[in-house]
Design brief:
Elements (H helix, E strand, L loop, with lengths): L1 E5 L16 H11 L3 E3 L6 H8 L2 E3 L2 E3 L14 E9 L5 E6 L2 H12 L17 H10 L3 E4 L9 H4 L3 H5 L8 E3 L6 H4 L9 E3 L16 E5 L5 H9 L5 E7 L11 E2 L8 H6 L10 E2 L2 H8 L13 E3 L3 H9 L6 H14 L2 H7 L2 H5 L7 H15 L3 E4 L8 E4 L5 H8 L3 E2 L13
Parallel strand pairs: 1-2, 2-5, 8-9, 11-14
Antiparallel strand pairs: 1-10, 3-4, 4-5, 5-6, 6-7, 10-11, 12-13, 15-16, 15-17
Helix pairs in contact: 11-12, 11-15
The chain binds zinc ion (2 copies).
Length: 431
């Protein structure tokens, strides 16, 4: 079977998260997105773990059943225990944990090294990457670095290799999470990553459809269990990732090197000459693209096992681009709900439904908007988009090649990069 999974999110017990990051809301929203397997996030937090304990468990998977059927959006969302922790160098690591008892063991072994493990769902640990990986191995948990290239709190922000971070435990690492500003065409230019599975997760701090599962993975498994997920990440017994879905890297907010105050973009050479100080006095933050160029040591040809990478943004953003309204506006919301009512989930609309069935959709809207939305979905499927790259903490700006007025096209021509996916965007129906 094929399953979509978003393995890195945070509960409301993590800092700077929405109070709505609770299990019922997450289950409902993930189901609308078309994501049946969600990481719990924060599984070392005693109170979050307590609410997970109340769910029905089978083989390391926690089944959410709404108490009052009929009042909630029907959900078939399952959870697997995950947590992000910060090491002593401020590098973030994702752990995927087999059971409640192993989560409790990890909590006990980390507790003496953390001041905030009882208060923050994403605890800071006074342990190195190697020491955390050792404890992960002892608990039979999977581990890998989070958003590995971002200029803050990430492995390649502070280290030049996996070994520098994980020492002798580097061989135990089974995946790397790419983060919003990178895709497999970036990461496969770094030799030491080529054997690892790439994960694309949302790192969502709120349950809104433009955040939850904005990136996700598609795995081939026999059934849904921790062991099957583990086999898929380790690519054993025919289980494997079959698709990574994520933002075009230029959309990420640290794609190019740019000032974190005024967002002026700089080439790597310019930034070095200026000693990473912008004309405005602000700090220039090294972009993921430049960091990858520094680290690159091979030609970037994808290894055989690497699945395709599909560049997508959330449906509400696609609709927003199409009708020139903010993704949070009432008009966009209405179109989004209408499409979901007809197709069941975002993933179906964006990836799996045939273009003909979308064309045949009779969702309720004036025909102009309808046509624009259909064209926008098609533009993404065919990679007909332009992107003004993000940097310095500001997201990139996507523009549809179709639909954009000539004047707007000219205005952006100078600064936009032509969108070239690392490999050809395959026919979406192949996945
Ligand atoms: Zn993080
Ligand atoms: Zn500046």
């Amino acid at each position: 079977m094929i399953i979509n999974a978003d393995l890195h999110i945070h509960s409301h017990y993590s800092a700077a998260t929405s109070p709505r990051m609770d299990l019922p809301t997450l289950a409902t929203e993930a189901s609308k997105k078309g994501i049946p397997l969600l990481g719990t996030g924060d599984c070392l937090h005693p109170r979050w773990l307590q609410s997970i304990r109340e769910l029905e468990e089978r083989d390391g998977i926690f089944y959410f059943k709404p108490k009052d059927e009929g009042t909630t959006h029907a959900t078939n969302t399952n959870f697997v225990l995950t947590v992000e922790v910060e090491d002593t160098r401020r590098v973030h690591h994702l752990l995927i944990v087999p059971s409640i008892s192993k989560a409790e063991e990890l909590y006990e072994s980390f507790r003496a090294y953390s001041r905030d493990i009882d208060s923050d769902g994403r605890p800071s640990l006074r342990l190195s990457g190697a020491e955390i990986a050792e404890r992960a191995r002892d608990a039979e948990a999977l581990i890998g670095p989070c958003h590995v290239f971002t200029p803050w709190t990430a492995l390649y922000a502070y280290h030049n290799s996996l070994k520098e971070c994980y020492g002798d435990m580097a061989g135990y690492v089974s995946f790397v999470e790419l983060g919003l500003s990178a895709d497999s065409s970036y990461a496969d230019r770094i030799g030491e990553l080529r054997d690892l599975t790439f994960l694309t997760n949302s790192d969502a701090h709120s349950p809104y459809p433009i955040r939850l599962a904005r990136e996700f993975n598609r795995f081939q498994v026999e059934d849904v269990s921790f062991d099957e997920l583990k086999a898929a990440i380790k690519r054993e017994r025919g289980r494997k990732p079959v698709l990574n879905v994520g933002f075009p890297p230029q959309e990420g907010k640290y794609n190019e090197s740019a000032c974190i105050r005024c967002y002026t973009h700089y080439s790597l050479n310019e930034a070095i000459t200026r000693r990473w100080r912008c004309g405005c006095g602000g700090l220039i933050k090294k972009g993921v693209r430049d960091r990858v160029n520094e680290l690159a040591d091979c030609d970037g040809a994808h290894p055989k096992h690497r699945p395709p990478y599909l560049h997508l943004i959330p449906l509400a953003e696609v609709i927003g681009l199409a009708v020139h309204k903010s993704p949070g506006s009432k008009a966009v919301q209405k179109l989004w709900e209408a499409l979901l009512a007809e197709f069941g989930s975002e993933v179906t609309v964006l990836i799996d439904a045939s273009m003909d069935s979308i064309k045949g959709a009779h969702f309720d809207s004036n025909s102009d908007d309808r046509i624009r939305v259909l064209e926008a979905i098609r533009a993404f499927r065919e990679s007909k988009i332009r992107i003004l790259p993000g940097g310095g903490g500001k997201y990139g700006v996507i523009e549809l090649k179709t639909g954009a007025s000539e004047e707007a096209q000219e205005r952006v021509q100078e600064t936009m990069v032509e969108y070239e996916p690392g490999r050809e965007q395959l026919s979406l129906l192949d996945f």
